[in-house]
Fold this sequence. Notes:
Layout: E1 2-4, E2 7-9, H1 14-23, H2 39-50, H3 58-67, H4 71-83, E3 86-87, E4 101-102, H5 105-114, H6 117-129, H7 137-148, H8 157-182, H9 186-196, E5 207-208, E6 214-215
Parallel strand pairs: 3-4
Antiparallel strand pairs: 1-2, 5-6
Helix pairs in contact: 2-3, 3-4, 4-5, 4-6, 5-7, 6-7, 6-8, 7-9, 8-9
Amino acid sequence: MTRVDDQWHVIDGQHTAIAAVTHGGIEELEVLVVEAGERCDRAGAFIGHNRDRVQITNSQLFFAAAAAGDEDVLTALQICERAGACVLRNPSPGRPFRPGELIAIAALMQLVKRRTAVKARTVIETLVRVRAAPITADLIKAVDMVLHDRNYGEVDPEEIIVAFERYGSVLNAKSVELALAKAIPRARAMGVVLYQHTRKRKTSRPAESANGHETAGVALS
């Protein structure tokens, strides 16, 4: 715990504290008091205490890192905000996802660290425009692969949007089929299938096949 003005803030052991209050018969708990008066210090302490604990979600660590001033996380939030996406703090069980809601924290951070802010925003913005609900890790990786991977030709984001609008259910079915047939990750299969359903510019390069070689096309049936 840490003291802020005249209040005590729990930075570790929240579940224990809640359980004690709920029980009603526990009057005292032993606690360790630490100095973390600033908001960023408290967020940093929260991350340090909970990074390796399974009950803490990627989303909770993500927003704690944002409060602590982590530059990569702040960049990711800015990219999502400008792209029109919403990173969910706590998805509500049973509530359908809304278009543009993002749950793939790890994939988002990988994208931000791998690409420039402009390229990362293009990927997220494209998925917002196709009304992905939710924006998943497979979708982020597939769209990034088609737009920015060196093994793929130049594809305009507009063509990806058209492909999703015209072949949405087909893309999903064929990517599952290809992933199973070639024993490759679902995201990579989705990228291959998506690429095959877009119009390429005249300067396009050959696409990568499922086995990693360049090819003029990948059989999907």
